[in-house]
Write a structure and sequence with these properties.
Elements: E1 6-9, E2 13-16, H1 23-32, E3 39-43, E4 46-49, H2 50-66, E5 74-78, H3 83-95, E6 98-101, H4 108-118, E7 122-125, H5 130-139, E8 146-149, H6 157-163, E9 178-184, E10 192-197, H7 200-213, E11 220-223, H8 230-243, E12 246-248, H9 256-266, E13 270-273, H10 275-284, E14 297-300, H11 307-317, E15 321-326, E16 333-336, E17 349-350, E18 354-359, E19 372-378, E20 384-385, H12 389-395, E21 396-397, E22 400-409, E23 415-420, E24 425-427, E25 430-432, H13 434-442, E26 447-456, E27 462-470, H14 478-491, E28 500-503, H15 517-521
Parallel strand pairs: 3-12, 5-6, 5-7, 7-8, 11-12, 11-13, 13-14, 14-15, 27-28
Antiparallel strand pairs: 1-2, 3-4, 9-10, 10-20, 15-16, 16-17, 18-19, 19-22, 21-22, 22-23, 24-25, 26-27
Helix pairs in contact: 1-2, 2-3, 2-6, 4-5, 7-8, 10-11
Bound molecules: 5'-O-[(S)-[(2-aminobenzoyl)oxy](hydroxy)phosphoryl]adenosine.
5'-O-[(S)-[(2-aminobenzoyl)oxy](hydroxy)phosphoryl]adenosine binds at residues 184, 230-231, 301-304, 323-328, 332-333, 347, 403-405, 417, 420, 512.
Length: 525
């Protein structure tokens, strides 16, 4: 991909035109390239053409500018997946305002923290979230200059935008100017604002979207993961925009029913999900037979995709799921499987433009096949965490980013996930990956989901225990426990079997669907 603003040079160097503002290649370019009448976004509000998108972006840029939100100031966004998400995000970038899209499933106390922490000049929210956002505004000592609802009564973006001009010239910026933030939540502590630069979305869209996944102009992209996640933002916004393709949006909760409905209605060619949802969709496929024939490829990220889900999905739908690992700090996927290079159960190989090293506890590179801390480098990584020098120093070391994950690389260059660095267990003095045990248990036809954590035994030695969610209609009994133990002992080294099984109705999860193992570790017996 080459255009007026970005050229790819030898050695994967990107060269940016002077005055580069990232909204130019992602938004304005499409009119210059004659794509005005092409549909950019499809959703239950109707179809938005590229010409409509450019106008919407410019109108919201004019609204922000007129209301006095200026360069470098933050616009906090609690906005559902809808065209206005695009208008506000790119409109802000054109003005030089920093959009900060946040998780729309959070609660008032989380938003109060973000309002305070970001010192946002503006706050934009979908009326659906009023019950959490409005108390947060009332509670926060910091009062944004501008509070706008997307639509509905009172002062809204849509009402103001309809009065505003539909042309706006983007402010000149540079590839390394601060552009937008995304909050990243660890398992402990407050969320950290990861500061991303103008070039970052170009890097992910080019190296992963175009070069690795092969997103094309005739693609229709549907991401079950929402736009406010870095994963969803790439899948459902920047990759299709970069390719001049079409994005399909679902504004509600992604469930097997709602996602299958969207796929049947809008016929996407690329589908992006997370492992938990693929698991639920597989369960639903036992009864429903949705028409998935438009889809040519599926993608998974957010947590490791068990080989078993990959296999069953392939068997049921004929489709491949490309698993890849990404993070909020890296902005998108930096290690990925390919259609023509896949090992089920692995995260795949390096995405071009990124490098990785795996270090042991003495910061020495480990030999092939041995696990260690995964550290990566690439031009899309966040520069720092806003007002958090300690976490910045621990995570961002010069140009290298500490992922917090344990990985090993095999002799073919495939990377295998072994758990978060802090989830790894030492059992009998040997490293033991909870993920390996989970993958084994998931092979059992009665198991829907499982999380394995370490718990100290009577001698205060860590032993693995399993928290298991069974498939609908299956009840636990002694015979099943025996069966699961037999499976573990047959498939893994002898010390790697859970010493306890807990059968539960559901596992505790973060808003992004990641299992909160730390909660299971602290459950009182
Ligand atoms: C874990 C994975 C194994 C891993 C993300 C794609 O998940 C994303 O970002 P987050 O900041 O979390 C990052 C952490 O999640 N993880 C993600 N993908 C995988 N572990 N296999 C995977 N395929 O611990 C990582 O450090 O929420 C994913 C694109 C953009 C993203 N932000």
């Amino acid at each position: 991909m080459q255009n007026q603003w970005v050229k790819v040079r030898a050695g994967n160097e990107l060269e940016f035109a002077p005055g580069f503002n990232v909204a130019l290649p992602f938004i304005d370019r499409h009119l210059a390239e004659g794509r005005g009448d092409k549909v950019a976004i499809r959703c239950n509000q109707g179809d938005i053409t590229y010409a409509g998108l450019v106008a919407g972006v410019n109108r919201s840029a004019n609204v922000l500018k007129t209301l006095g939100i200026g360069r470098g100031e933050r616009l906090l966004m609690m906005v559902k997946d809808c065209p206005e998400f695009f208008y506000a995000f790119w409109g802000a970038i054109k003005v030089g305002v920093i959009p900060v899209p946040v998780n729309t499933m959070l609660r008032a106390k989380d938003y109060a923290f973000m309002i305070e922490n970001s010192e946002c000049a503006g706050l934009l929210y979908s009326p659906e979230y009023a019950a959490e956002v409005e108390p947060a505004l009332a509670a926060s000592p910091h009062k944004p200059k501008l509070v706008l609802k997307v639509e509905g009564d009172g002062q809204t973006l849509n009402a103001l935008a309809s009065q505003a001009s539909d042309s706006f010239a983007a402010v000149a910026a540079s590839p390394t100017d601060e552009c937008f933030w995304l909050y990243s939540s660890g398992s402990t502590g407050s969320p950290k604002g990861a500061v991303h630069l103008h070039r970052d979305m170009v890097v992910t869209s080019h190296f992963y979207g175009t070069e690795t996944l092969g997103v094309r102009e005739d693609d229709i992209c549907f991401s079950a993961a929402k736009l406010f996640f870095a994963y969803g933002m790439g899948n459902g916004m920047t990759f299709p925009l970069w390719a001049g393709a079409t994005a399909v949006l679902l504004d509600g909760r992604p469930t097997p029913d709602s996602t299958f409905e969207v796929i049947e209605k809008y016929k996407p060619t690329l589908y992006f999900g997370v492992p938990t949802l693929y698991g639920l969709q597989l369960q639903a496929l036992d009864h429903a037979k949705p028409d998935l024939s438009s889809v040519r490829l599926c993608v998974s990220a957010g947590e490791a995709l068990p080989a078993e889900i990959f296999r069953r999905w392939k068997e049921q739908t004929g489709l491949m799921i490309l698993d890849g690992i990404g993070s909020t700090e890296a902005l998108h996927i930096f290690i990925s499987n390919r259609v023509d290079g896949y090992k089920p159960g692995s995260s795949g190989k390096m995405v071009p433009g990124y490098e990785a090293i795996i270090l042991d506890e003495n910061d020495r590179e480990v030999p092939t096949g041995e696990g260690g801390r995964l550290i990566i480098k690439g031009a899309s990584t966040a520069k720092y965490y806003w007002r958090n020098p300690e976490k910045t120093a621990n995570t961002m070391m010069n140009d290298w980013l500490n992922t917090g994950d344990t990985y090993y690389r095999d002799e073919d260059g495939y990377y295998f996930y072994c758990g978060r660095s802090d989830d790894m267990l030492k059992v009998g003095g040997i490293w033991c990956s909870p993920f390996e045990i989970e993958g084994t248990l998931l092979e059992h036809p009665k198991v829907l989901e499982v999380a394995v954590v370490g718990r100290p035994d009577a001698e205060n030695l860590i032993k693995p225990e399993a928290w298991v969610v069974l498939r609908d209609g299956v009840a636990p009994d002694a015979a099943l426990t025996e069966d699961l133990l037999r499976l573990c002992k047959a498939k893994m080294a002898p010390y790697k079997y859970p010493r306890h099984f807990h059968f539960v109705a559901e596992l505790p999860k973060t808003a992004t669907g990641k299992i909160q193992r730390f909660r299971l570790r602290t459950v009182e017996e």
